[in-house]
Structures are given as C-alpha cells and as structure tokens.
Amino acid sequence: MPSARFVLPAHRTSHRATRRATHRATLAFLGSAAAALGVLAPVSPVAVAPAAADETPYVVSVGDSYISGEAGRWAGSSNADSDRADALGAGAYLDAGSSESIERCHRSSSAEIHIGTAPSLNLACSGAETSTSTGDRFKPGLDFYEGSEGQGQALALQEFASTHDVGMVVVSIGGNDVGFADVVQTCVLDFLYSPGWAKDYCHDDNSVEQAFSASHLAQVRADVAAGLTNIATAMRTAGYSDDEWTLLLQTYPSPIPRAGGFRYSQSGYTRQDTGGCGFWNADADWANDTALPAINSTVLGGLADSGLTNTAVLDLAHTFDGRRLCESGVGLYEEVGLASWTSPGAVDRTEWVNQIRTVSTIGSSSPYYVQESLHPNYWGQLAVRSCVRQAWNGGTPVGGTCTRTGTGLTAGEPVMALR
C-alpha cells in the first residue's frame, strides 16, 4: 500500500504563536469580566490556560479501539497464568484516575498516542463508529453529538483545540462501520461448530458477504469521509487554518497470518482452545488477501473523498508481521519457556496481538475482556507508538509505512521504522 507524505509549510509556527496569544488574551478578558461582575466563570474540564508560545503542540487521537489502546494491558499471552503477561495491571484503562472517563472506551496508558516527545490527549473509544451510538454503551463517534452521556469526539476535539495548541490529530476509523467484531465472531463460530471434513467458512456466509458488499463499503466510505470532514470542521471552528495542523489517518494491521504461517494445525480445536485464533485456513487467507485490503481501501477512499489536503497516511497493514496472533516464531509464555513479559527477549518471542476470547471462557473473576480480542497488545501499542512519534517528526508531520526493523527494545519500545 503506498505511503503518503505531507510536510507543513514553514510559517506554521508563527500562526501558532499568534493563536496562543489570542487565546491568552481571550481568557484574560473573560476572567476580568467575570471578576468585574462578581461571578465565577464556569470552567470546562479541558479549558485550561494554553501552552506558552515556545511549548510543543499536542498530538490527539480520535477513533476506535485500534487507536484507543484496547488490549494494551497485556504483553503477549499465557493460558497458564495471566500475571505473566500483565504489563499494566488492573488500572490499565483508568484514564480518569480511579475510573474510566467513558466506560469501556479502554484508553490504556500504553496507547500509541502517548509519544513522549509531545503532549498527548486520547479521545478515541473502543467500539466507536463514525457516528455516535447511545445504545447499551455510549460510544462517541467522529461527530458533534452532545447529550447527557457525553460528547462526540469531534466536539470534544473542538473544545480542547480551542484552548490548547494541537499540531496533529491521529485517526483510526471505519472498521466498526464495516462490522469487524461481528465478522470475527462469525469466523470463530464457523471454526468451532463445523468439522474438518465439512468446513463451514465464514467468508461466504451471507452476513459477511453483506458486510463486504460494494454497496455497504460505499456507504462506509461516505461515512468515513463525513467523519474526517467533521474533524477538520472542529479544528476550523477552534480557530485553525488547515495548514496549521495535520490529520494522520492510520490503516488497520493484519492481526493473524495467512494459512501457511500458523503454528497450530487447523485440525481439532487447538487453534482456538490454545491459541485463541479460531480461523480456518481459507478464512485466514481471505482475511489477509481480501477483507483487510477492502477495509483499508475503503478508509483511504473516504480520506480522498473528504477533499482534505493537510493529511498524511500511517500504513499499518504489515506492522505486526512475524509477531501476529498464532504466528510461527512466537508463542505463549509457557510455549517459549519465558517466565513473564519482563524476561529478556519477551518482545521477540511472544505475540503482539491479543487472543480471541469468548464469553464462555471469561468468568466473573477473569481479568480479560472479550472486547480486547484481536487487538494490538502492549507490545503492539508501543510498536505503533514508535511510528507515530516518527510521523510527528518533531512537529513537521509525515506519513509512511510502519515496519519492524530489528529485535529487542530501544528505550522500552520495539525497533520500528517509518518508511
């Protein structure tokens, strides 16, 4: 998949300095007016004084579970002892101190947006689609929804950017609009409930064919375009010209290998019972050769249709190759003979994608969530984080392809390159 590169013009810094000065003057005026009237001005949760003119702008994430930090608690997998893989502990998703700011958004502290070289804000939410959902659980979309449950991510970004300097917005969106979770569930159920001599494949099931039909993908493409336009509208309303910030759109990575790359045979139930990767070979090939390219092509089509020019693409399609779920060359901690995620070499010998779990295997005392299934784990989050940092490029954002280029850890992260 071709990478996209975008470099901002040199006058960006002066525009930012002017906007910061304007923000400070506005806040000062409002404070003086409130004092003169003898009232206390209401304070928004994000309405704090903007950074000084020489401080680094924020990078902000919006979108779904593939950027929120879902599964970021776990560094590899173990069926014998969850403690072996528990890198962040029970507080992994508590982004509001002792709670989640939005329940089950799973904004982990290992999320890719926390690059360290710039301040960061994670507005993404696991399960989010382009439009806000107020069903069983509130899921903010890339829109301007405002209600008792909370705000859409575009509105939250607009409010934050009005009082903070934002230089890059990183977006992952579209997978849930296609129906990613339902497709995975169908594939696993077909694997578990059909025998080897009469395999029931998911890629030709009616529900899956409908999810990947031309008409449905066209609608998702239009929805992605609208969502990205909302992000641009939010920034414009917050006072930014398009040349003062970059929208970095990331594609989705391959989470499982093709048929020849599995370390477990498709015979029996080992793929799911042990590896947590219950796909028939033919469905694994379809997922890599058809489904993933279709989703990524749809997302990139939405970007093109948005007409935005201050954009770059972070291509993640092959970022986890060699470290995917159930792939040969890596394994569970008990399979590779390592005590835990802190053991030397763990990053190279364990998986970077979380196991697929079912409701029946997670009891009330389990530390796992079904929604963590098939998402980048702690290692995967840090790998992408390295590439997001490289894409930030010291404040002059660029796009590219994120790939693994070495073994071991550098400054606590896998060795990655943006090319």
Largest sheet: 7 strands, mixed
| Share of helix, binned | 25-40%
Low-confidence stretches: 1-14, 24-52
Whole-number mean pLDDT: 90
State the shape: globular
Give the end-to-end Cα distance, rounded to a whole number of Å. 12 Å
From the alpha carbons, calculate the radius of gyration and give it in angstroms: 22 Å
Strand content: 5-15%
By DSSP, the count of extended strands is: 11
Q: Counting H and I runs of at least 4 residues, what is the number of helices?
A: 12
Question: Keywords for this structure?
Answer:
419 residues; alpha/beta; seven-stranded mixed β-sheet; globular
Descriptive notes:
This protein is α/β, with parallel strands linked by helices. It contains twelve helices and eleven strands. It has helices spanning 12-37, 65-68, 153-163, 175-178, 180-192, 206-211, 214-237, 270-273, 281-306, 333-336, 346-349, 378-392; strands spanning 58-63, 120-122, 133-134, 138-139, 146-147, 150-151, 166-172, 246-250, 311-315, 400-410, 413-418. It has a seven-stranded mixed β-sheet. A two-stranded antiparallel sheet has the order 3-4. A two-stranded antiparallel ribbon has the order 5-6.
Give the helix/strand layout:
Layout (H helix, E strand, L loop, with lengths): L11 H26 L20 E6 L1 H4 L51 E3 L10 E2 L3 E2 L6 E2 L2 E2 L1 H11 L2 E7 L2 H4 L1 H13 L13 H6 L2 H24 L8 E5 L19 H4 L7 H26 L4 E5 L17 H4 L9 H4 L28 H15 L7 E11 L2 E6 L1
Parallel strand pairs: 1-2, 1-7, 7-8, 8-9, 9-10
Antiparallel strand pairs: 3-4, 5-6, 10-11
Helix pairs in contact: 3-7, 7-9
Quick overview of this protein structure:
The chain is α/β, with parallel strands linked by helices and 419 residues long. It has twelve helices and eleven strands. Helix 3 runs parallel beside helix 7.
